[in-house]
Write a structure and sequence with these properties.
This protein is of the alpha/beta class. It has 20 helices and 22 strands.
Length: 643
């Protein structure tokens, strides 16, 4: 079939799109022109939901009186989960509880100001703060699939399920390429290759925004490149690195029409991003032509004072941010002090009205794009789809296609289910450890009881495949922190088994809470593996971790090693099927896995080719590598012969 498209039709379509954009601009400007200074400043303010919550009957409810207090100040946005940590056995709101709360917020704000609020949430691996929604593998797993369509599907369901809760703004995807392998936010990234990150990020944004939800690239820019590997520590990048390694994913997102972006906690080349004119204004707005909303990260503007010591006080911090960045909204988030300081600065003539109106116009335009003025609580049509089989299937596909088989001596895998098995290790029977941080609560959860709806642990899934209790033994043997139980008992069970499947890795954490962990896995974990290996059993090692913790030689004593990342709820089933050969491993390492601390800072960036380059003291050198970027085995054999 031959398709002919007339030039006039394309021109008409382009004109229609341009006209719609111009209409939206005009509507936004009209709304902004009718706002008072107080209302404008309120729109630029984002407050955590905790400010308006009360504890009641073992749960959390909205205090409408507190909402009125904020509505009277014209607050433009709320954010966050109501359960930063669990409240007894309560880990969050289901979709109906979310809709009730969002409805209360919107009702008060619209009746008070005529302008809807926009709610932002970290739906980072599915709608991870909405009870009953399917929890997807983390972004690092999606990156290991090298399949943008899977990133798009995750974005689609994250957007759909978040919208079902009445929420129109997702703080994701994360678009920093990985550099330092100790950085505690690696699980939130797509890996270390800028092209892969760009392709995956663009697809995820398409999936999110196809559901009428705003995506938000983060964290602009260089956030993952801290010199120390610690979250929020300073970053130094050459112009070459900035433009060739860190810029491409953000450019791809902007070209794809991402509606919003988030700034970064870090100082880049000595200047905090919240007041970094070169990168926030000249680079982001002038060069990359980003015209969407730019929101600060949590308390980022005030960090200019208390963290970076770049400002004398809060008011000075706000002045510097408004003068030397293009931030549109302050994630304050604990109080409304931002409004008072902004008023003082405005009436003192230090911040011009045009600067304020420019930001509020962007904010109002995004609300118009999302149709919040007409439908302030979207998603009623998809409420009953949350947790459905289509989203489970998408999470399952990502989980199984993200598993990376990195070692398989003498084709020990796939496993023979007629043999004897010993299942052990802290992650073998724990869904929470397979999900990591940003799961139900900010820092995640350990255990399985809070995941009743979807699938099984590794032990549970593998035991069902063997289907013979006389040939399976289970003993955890060691805690996630490396504390041993009875090592002799564990060794007896290992010695009696043909295969010992050990699943271990990291505790759950998020952001800077992961800064305190050493680069190596706890010695108790690695010594446990080595002790069991002395029994003669074949060690099948499953690594469940959000970043590549150093293994201290345990990969060398294993017959097979599977890098599972954080596959979350579907991980147990996916790992079991892969180990038994029901699925063929297809994942590839999305990052270089370092072998030792010889390189001091574990910075092993992928420069477009496989190698062992790393950065030591600012100098590129060569360092030991456990597994290279792109490495991954399968069960398929190939043979070559002359034609």
């Amino acid at each position: 079939m031959r398709v002919v498209t007339s030039t006039s039709a394309l021109v008409l379509l382009a004109c229609t799109i341009l006209s719609a954009a111009q209409d939206l601009d005009a509507k936004a400007r009209d709304i902004v022109e009718r706002m008072s200074v107080d209302q404008l400043l309120g729109q630029m303010t984002q407050i955590t939901i905790d400010f308006v919550l009360a504890t009641q009957d073992g749960g959390k409810v909205v205090n409408v009186g507190k909402v009125h207090e904020l509505a009277n100040q014209g607050i433009g946005s709320y954010l966050n989960t109501p359960f930063v940590s669990a409240l007894g056995d309560n880990y969050g709101w289901n979709v109906h509880e979310w809709r009730h709360a969002i409805g209360q917020l919107q009702d008060v704000h619209i009746r008070t100001t005529g302008t809807p609020i926009i709610y932002g949430l970290d739906s980072l691996h599915g709608a991870n703060y909405i009870k009953g929604a399917v929890l997807f593998p983390h972004q690092i797993n999606v990156g290991a699939t090298f399949d943008p369509e899977l990133a798009r599907r995750m974005g689609h369901y994250a957007g759909r399920d978040t919208k079902a809760a009445g929420i129109s703004w997702i703080f994701g995807p994360t678009l920093e390429p990985v550099r330092h392998k100790g950085w505690p936010r690696i699980m939130e990234t797509f890996g270390e290759d800028p092209t892969v990150v760009a392709d995956m990020g663009k697809a995820a944004i398409d999936g999110i925004q196809s559901q009428g939800v705003a995506a938000c690239f983060k964290h602009f820019i260089g956030y993952s490149a801290s010199n120390s590997g610690k979250d929020r520590d300073p970053v130094s990048l050459s112009n070459h690195e900035l433009l060739n390694l860190f810029m491409p994913p953000f450019k791809a997102a902007i070209d794809a029409g991402v509606m919003s972006g988030m700034d970064s906690f870090v100082s880049l080349d000595g200047i905090p991003m919240a007041a970094n004119r070169k990168n926030s204004i000249q680079f982001l707005r002038d060069d990359l032509k980003f015209d969407g909303v730019l929101v600060s990260d949590w308390e980022e503007i005030y960090m200019l004072e208390f963290y970076h010591h770049y400002a004398a006080n809060r008011e000075d911090a706000i002045y510097k941010a408004m003068t030397d960045s293009s931030l549109d909204m302050s994630m304050v988030p604990y109080d409304t002090s931002f409004i008072g300081h902004m008023k003082d600065l405005y009436y003192a003539g230090k911040i011009p009205l045009d600067r304020i109106k420019t930001s509020v116009t962007r904010l109002v335009k995004m609300k118009l794009k999302l149709n919040l003025f007409d439908v302030p609580m979207p998603g009623a049509d998809v409420v009953n789809q949350v947790g459905d089989w289509s989203s489970r299937a998408a999470a399952w596909d990502i989980a199984k296609e993200s598993l990376v088989l990195v070692k398989n001596v003498d084709k020990v895998l796939p496993l023979d289910k007629s043999k004897k098995f010993f299942f052990t290790g802290p992650s073998i029977d724990d869904i929470g450890l397979m999900c990591g941080g940003w799961t139900l609560t900010w820092q995640g959860q350990q255990g399985s009881s809070m995941f009743p709806n979807h699938w099984r642990t590794i032990k549970g899934a593998m035991t069902d495949v063997v289907n013979d209790q006389s040939r399976t033994e289970f003993y955890q043997g060691v805690n996630i922190d490396g504390t041993w139980w009875d090592i002799n008992w564990a060794k007896q069970k290992a010695q009696a088994a043909d295969y010992t499947v050990i699943a271990l890795g990291e505790r759950p954490y998020a952001e800077f809470k992961g800064n305190t962990d050493p680069y190596e896995l706890p010695s108790g974990l690695t010594e446990y593996v080595k002790a069991l290996a002395t029994t003669g059993t074949k060690i099948i090692l499953v690594l469940v971790e959000g970043r590549p913790r150093l293994l201290s030689g345990i990969a060398d004593v294993a017959a097979a090693v599977l890098y599972a990342g954080l596959p979350c709820e579907m991980g147990g089933e996916a790992i079991s099927e892969m180990l038994f050969g029901l699925t063929n491993p297809s994942g590839r390492m999305a990052m270089t896995y370092p072998k030792s601390t010889d390189q001091v800072n574990l910075a092993t960036p992928y420069y477009g080719r496989v190698g062992d380059e790393c950065v030591v003291g600012g100098v590129t050198t060569h360092c030991p590598v456990e597994w290279h970027f792109g490495h991954g085995l399968s069960y398929t054999s190939f043979s070559y012969s002359d034609a």
